[in-house]
Fold each of these.
Amino acid sequence: GQTNLKSPQDIQVYVVNTNFTLRWKYTGNDTNVTFSAEYRFEDFMIDGTEWKELPGCQKVTHMECDFSSAITEYYDKHHVRLRAERREEVSPWSSVFEMTPYDIAQISAPGIELQSINGVIKIKVSPPEANQVKKMWIDDLSFNYNLVIWENSSNAEFRNQSIFPTDFIDGLAPDTTYCLKVQATYPWEAKEGLFSPVHCVKTTRKAVNDLFCATNVSVLALNMKFHLHWNNRYKQHVSYNVQYLIGYLKKFYDDYSVKWLNVPGCENITDTQCNFSSIITTASGIFYLRVQAMNEYNKPCLSNEVKVNPLVTNEIGPPGVKVDISDVLLHIQIYPPGGSESEVMSTHYDLSYRVLYWKNSSNNEEEIKMKEIKQTIGTISDLTPSTLYCVKVQAFSKAYNKSSHFSKEECIKTPGDKILPLIILATFVTALIAVLLVAAPLGFALYQAYSKIKYVFFPSCQPPLNIEGFGEQLFNSPCLSTTEEPIENCSIIETIITEELNQTDFKDYKHSKQSSRDSGNYSNDDDTSGSKGSEETLEKEIV
């Protein structure tokens, strides 16, 4: 069981696409030594998977071997081990190397084809695993391509740019040799592939464009309204067709030159502008536009392409603002920019609003205050009474680093100070209550005095008529009934005896009435009955 063979060291597995290479180091001085490897992969359905011989790595004499044919499961975890062998003698197994193929795999270099035409370089890229049956990277359309190009000279400057599978490299000097290399990247897994071998090509001179070709093609977009503008140097009749291409078509490896479409409403026009908002059907897509000019001889000329990323190209317009005032708050109503497209603007840009407000006075040193809000309704407190406040609002998007111009200023005056009127009102109410508290008892006392005086000096009752004939002073009593009693008409026989008796009785009567008046207890009924009794007595005595 003794052996002098050492175990292999520094076991490594290199994976490029679906190509697997095992490499190691051996520090022993032994000759005629070979190496053999075993592997197993973790199967969650079967516990304790047994080691198997690794195809392509049995009794090899070099320090590496290719075992690509042995691996078919790229997302499972695999174990690899290695040992040295010499005839019947074997070394201990090396440490186990653990790997998941997909995680450690590299992207191979893409294939490229170059063509120099009309002052530009046309490049066509093929995916890293083109024409392969077994693929590590399932979706070729997920690859992006990074180009590095430089002028083949001693003081070359390297230029990096992203390209499509079929693309044109412009901005090059004529009759100049350029070298380039291309790298594939896999954004979903943040993987960068190997660069292709360097290819060099010489540019040609660019043909002079005809005068009728559209130049300086540009896009102006505001609140999701898109317009294409261009210049016309030709003085004769020229018509234009504006064409567009949906961006994802450039991701395909096929020729997309036949897939350009005309923009509705921008066909065979003579204007140098076009509203192409109708083709922007999604805010997250990419679009390419170009202008095809046609002279009077029906000769076409295509302009340069313009790339449109709607949410990046578009600019945010100023929002609408309406202000209102209450007792202590300034209310601000904000209308998102874009009008009918305001929902698209608010949703995709996640708009916030920057509110500036200040006192509009002759003092130029008045501080301008700022408030940022997310909602379309805001309030401002701590207002000064009887002051003109002005407000303007700016919309901005942090996600896209965009901001609009400020809206028009809206001004409104706060109400006057209401403290003084409240003080005056409180003072008036207090005085009114005090007057009522004093005047009520005084008025009641005066009313009682007045009633007494009127009762004594101005009675509402009058003595009966049959008593009034006996003298006003004698029977001027306020307590006598004023009701007229029916009386009998009598004739008096005047004699001395009668007159004397009459005077005597009247004296007694007057004395009796005087006593009764002093007592102060009267009633009309008693007085009336007393009067009747006295009259009857007098009549009987007289008779």
Note: The domain at 9-104 is CATH 2.60.40.10 (Immunoglobulin-like).
Amino acid sequence: MLNKPVLVESLIVFVIVLFVHAVVWDRYSWCAVALAIQAFYAQFKWDHLLQLGGAVFQFRTAANSGLLPASMVIPLLGITMKERCKSAGIVYFERFGIVVASTGMLVALFLSVIAVGITKPVPTNTCILTGVAGSIIIYTMKHSLTVSEVIEVLEVLLIFVYLSMILLYLLPRCFTPGEALLVLGGISFVLNQLIKRSLNVIEGRGDPIDFFLLVAVVGVVLLGLFFTVLFIFMDSGTWISSMFFHMMTAVLGLGVIMPWLYRLIQRNPLFWLLQFLFQTQTRVYLLVYWTFLAASACGIVFYQNAKRSSESKKHQASTITRKYFHFIVVATYVPGLIYDRQLLYVAAVLCLAVFIFLEYIRYFRIKPFGQTLRHLLSLFLDERDSGPLILTHIYLLLGMSLPVWLFPRSCAPKGTLSGAGALVPYSGVLAVGVGDTIASVFGSTMGEIKWPGTKKTFEGTMTAIFAQIIAVALILIFDSSVNLNSSYAWILASVSLVSLLEAYTTQIDNLLLPLYLQIMFMA
């Protein structure tokens, strides 16, 4: 039987789904509702498999499967994007939103089918629900997608299947099934988009910063896969292996990634990047300011490790200490969102590539910094870092950056959406930087009334909602491009639902919460 936190989490997700489709109800809404119902039942099967250790791969054990909340993210993002672009009259991105929604539904349905297929005895009711949901989705896709779009959806599904088999085998206990759906589904879609755009390059078409994101994500993933396979046959901790790692990184970067990016943007990537970063005086000021914040974050890491070494007993960073980094990230993103969003977009891509590359150095124990990084970062581990990789800081960066990267700029006249949609780029700042941080700090220090079945407190959740409302008011004051058009009730409902989801979910909240808040704002 499902426990109460999972039931409440599922109820919150159902409410969000119904809220979104109350605004944008169409033929895809039936698909989304059917997918949500069958994902709820399939989630129970995944949870049962995880408890018995009968799942095909080793998943993160300190959480439930998270299939329902993860299954709805990509379809809802696609549906809300479709509606926004339809109202703006941008047909290309309207069709793109339909492809995103269809892809998300099919990938989520695939994970549900796996859970049903490996459950013994075969769950008859869940099989029937999965079959009905699959029939509705496939019937709708048949009457909505062109042949080329159907091929694109199937390509993403195929990439997801192979990527899942490889990465879930190589990285045990790093993901729950829901987190694997979000992360690997996103990587699969990015890889397919990069291949598609590389084969259909038209000079002058496409924004270089979008190509930069695609190439950077695919490049670091392929780099990791290459070295993972390589170090199966070599000891990665030796100086010879470390020199080979750095040499091959340079070869792959300059010989594969740079030419790939050159083909897409039709200019030298390094010259383009330098010209972009230092194009205006505002950008120079922002870069100097961000460098200072990065140095401050490094200072906190070194100070906490020095504090650990000076104590006789084992010292572990407290929750409040870890939230210092949330405050630093908020201080980083807010000026970028106000003054130069394109610079923030590119800077976030660079930071993601650097974070993942440093994690490779730590994981493979690459000299001379691999062992040092292992020692420094072990202080900040929590129960979510149960696998061989440390991903929480990468999830924090993704949670703040995804609303910026996924913001439909082409469908936004004058660079901003109307109503609550104007807050879409701020979704990460509000949900993670403000809401999650305040809930954690106040809940752990002053909270007394716990939500049933969780460690989260009523006081923390209420304080988080209040803090996010104050943050919205400050955004209105300092960002003149934001015009909410009296959509305050919707914003309050969105913030409240996502804050309740934070209290009950056991998934990576840094990744899940910003996406749901973005969905609500875009609706």
Note: Residues 89 and 411 are 8 Å apart (CA to CA).
Amino acid sequence: MKVAVAGCCHGALDKMYETLELLQRRHNVRPDLLLCCGDFQAVRNEADLCCMAVPAKYRHMQTFYRYYSGEKKAPVLTVFIGGNHEASNHLQELPYGGWVAPNIYYLGYAGVVRFRGVRIAGISGIFKSHDYRKGHFECPPYNQQTIRSAYHVRNIEVFKLKQLKHPIDIFMSHDWPRSIYHYGNKKQLLKMKSFFRQEVESNTLGSPAASELLQHLKPTYWFSAHLHVKFAAFMQHQTNSKEELPKATKFLALDKCLPHRDFLQIIDVEHDPNASDSLEYDAEWIAVLKATNSLVNVTQTSWNMPENNGLHAKWDYSATEEAIKEVLEELNHNLKIPCNFTLTAACYDPSKPQKKVEPVHTINPQTTEFCAQFGLTDINDRIQQAKEEGSVRGEREEEEEEEEMDSTGSAEEPSEYNTDNSGLSSINPDEIMLDEEGGDEDLSTCSVDPSPDHPPDFSASFSDIRIMPDSMAVSSDDAMDSTNEELEKSGVSKQVEEKSLNERPLKRVGGNENGNSGIKIKRRNQAIYAAEDEDKTE
């Protein structure tokens, strides 16, 4: 089947779907599935805008609300993960995943689903060492700290994914796995993004947690976004035994959704022709969720996941074949995800814009139904309870839960990632330094730049749509200088490309050239976001 993969969407759904229509007209190719690697920005209204960690000048309503209200419907099944510029209050309603609009599915903090027999997994957010070992304690209304920590990856999600034993076909993360740049054309990457050099040479660019998952899961494909640059790599994994067949991962990072930018890729993925055309639950993942349910933590207390180090009574939470069978029997072998999308917030009305809004913490019926069906803890309900008990800010909910955590995870143990030199605490990829952008900003006040009622036709100005039959293709300017032989052996073919005459190079901005001396943005972000000002997006 044909799978379209997109980078950072930034709420520009109309542009993205128009590009798919253009693909069909020009190449007679219609994708069966669209994957988006974060910064989706499922913004429903002004309150959602206030929960998005970006400077005020980037708070634009964009077009998602049209799909949320039912005015429009996604023309292709869309599955996405969260990034670091999201309406966190909206996505938080669906910690285990769910529909944010008809035909648009969010994978949750971490998740695994199936489509036509293809197993798709992903993890939302970006890595920050100082929040990695905390629980999901944040809830709206956010403050200047929690509006950012809400989208930081947590160790429990990585732990859950590491319990998977069956092969993964496609994995999505927002930030790149650390070290992946050593398996592609690093020279070309640094030519396009010279400000990455220091982090690449010190091996601090990317997420160590994602790197751990890459080495553990060894998926066939791994897709990322975040750095707003296209990059391909091919990683041959080491085998643990002579009997184990060698595995390799084809990695691709996508650019952001903008005219004149290469943000969309088409790949052919082997699928089961007898499998359902509906999006389905993954039985092993459900079994893992049930097994790890006792590890749910909604406090700021840092603690490590169970491991075989003599300190834990149990450390293996992987699903047995019996547990998987039980899940199948519970569902009567019907794994289809119910189309139970429900409106949980008022939709943006261009004729009645709201200036002063107060985000609220919402319990989504989809999550309630999911948790009831599989006997799981509703994280948002637990946070609400903890708030009422006055224990959500760093204390255990009950003495019994504290004793349970002592038997499974300990806050006294050292983290598996050194929090002092993670390399990401000060130079996290593509994250705007909100601390220096007005820490006293009122998050309940949003200046909305509404989308036009008749958005322009972008079909003539979008850059090429890359079509890669059979397997992931790498263009000549992305060909790996050190792994050409491996790529040829893996069947990588040349991309079909139509160059846009209007394509412009990425503008480099330094110092105060961004036109606002009152806002300080990291050097990397100055270059990344320069093109956004030019194209009037985000």
Note: Residues 404-415, 418-440, 451-538 have pLDDT under 50 and may be disordered.
Amino acid sequence: FANATHEVINVTLHTTLAATTKLVVPTPAKPILPVQTGVQAQQEEQSSGMTIFFSLLVLAICIILVHLLIKYRLHFLPESVAVVSLGILMGAFIKIIEAQKLANWKEEEMFRPNMFFLLLLPPIIFESGYSLHKGNFFQNIGSITLFSVFGTAISAFIVGGGIYFLGQADVIYKLNMTDSFAFGSLISAVDPVATIAIFNALNVDPVLNMLVFGESILNDAVSIVLTNTAEGLTRENMSDVSGWQTFLQALGYFLKMFFGSAALGTLTGLISAVISFWNEMEWNGMEWNHIDLRKTPSLEFGMMIIFAYLPYGLAEGISLSGIMAILFSGIVMSHYTHHNLSPVTQILMQQTLRTVAFMCETCVFAFLGLSIFSFPHKFEMSFVIWCIVLVLFGRAVNIFPLSYLLNFFRDHKITPKMMFIMWFSGLRGAIPYALSLHLGLEPIEKRQLIGTTTIIIVLFTILLLGGGTMPLIRLIDIEDSKARKRNKKDINLSKTEKMGNTIESEHLSELTEEEYEAQYIKRQDLKGFMWFDAKYLNPFFTRRLTQEDLHNGRIQMKTLTNKWYEEVRQGPSGSEDDEQELL
């Protein structure tokens, strides 16, 4: 009996020690990626160098095209449509060269999704959030959120569910549930670049403009989060999990990604506002003026660029959505941080962000056109036709019911004409194409089918729907009366020309304490978040200027102008009349 008891105690001790050991064993370290050296490193450098050269060459040709559009006043043609068309022509030219065995550019002309998500997309999303007209955006924040979050989810479920059930009925190519939902999510990302240009040229209702523009910005981030959610379900073994548990798991993952990323971006933007504001204040008797970056605009500008990209890297590093984080960071930094900067840095931020975003957008649309000849296609007519039908139907179910629902709570109603324009402006852009290449679908023919179908839908919406937006607006008579009287040749759809000739007055409107109180605090028409922001948040996170601050800002700008003029005078001398006019 004693021996038996001793054995039982030994077994118990071994079991306890084993369980304890499992609990205290540290998690394995992340594997270190192998570093290429020697010949492999040289080959990688050569390949990367040729890719960079090819990308810059394509971008330079596109910039020349945009310049020619502006020079010869071809303002009726949206730049995105022109760049995509140029990309198609360049792809055909490269294909002919490769067929003649004169060169081999297959690796360089391939669109790399990692480069898109790490380098090209963040500046585009940040600039979109940074350049929002905050008044119209926050006044319509409820409607924009409903369209971009719930509307995108509705569209994704309709497209994904339709593809799945049609595949089960052997009408189209068969996809499983998670792959169908992933495709429905990625194809729900709208990018109405051409439509927004037409809206600005025709001076349509600013509420309609903001609803379409604001929805497209948030919609991109929501679509990426939904696609990542579907990918996460695909990677996990869900065979033993019920449908209800799968739905709850997907919902939890989406809410974590959405609200976690939005909170991270908002927090980063507020920290940048605090740094740019409180560095001039006194705290516990200690003056912080010695770290005032406003006196050195180059350092201040560098700090703002760091904060512009910081939330993206942090969010991606902790498995959140970098796009969602950088979007909310851009909105917050524009609303609070920007007004704390020196006038020089404000102008530098606007023009730099616009230029970088323009170059990234141009590069993306050019490679989208190139992909027609560089991507290994798998084309199925029935799959493409049904996907286009489902995309249009999903957009309709998104816009019309939600608009009628919102009209019960809106003072400025969404008219049926506005609803139809919002449905028609659901163009697809480079984000669906990049997401389609980023999906880890097996077998390879499934990935090729999804990529080919995505390219066709994107080109269909850009060329057909984007090209038909202006005639449709003219037909249903929704434009401004002044724009209606203008000739077609006088309408300017060039986003680049307007971008270079204007500075957002909202971003340069620095108000003194008395002016801010008269313009915002005492207004009786502010409601909800607008009232809370004007009463508490804006006074806390933004600096109210004194007359001395405004005077110093004018001196700083005048000094820079005088320096520029002195350098100009050192060059070839002009006439005395020209000098007098400059003075």
Note: Residues 16-25, 282-286, 505-519 have pLDDT under 50 and may be disordered.
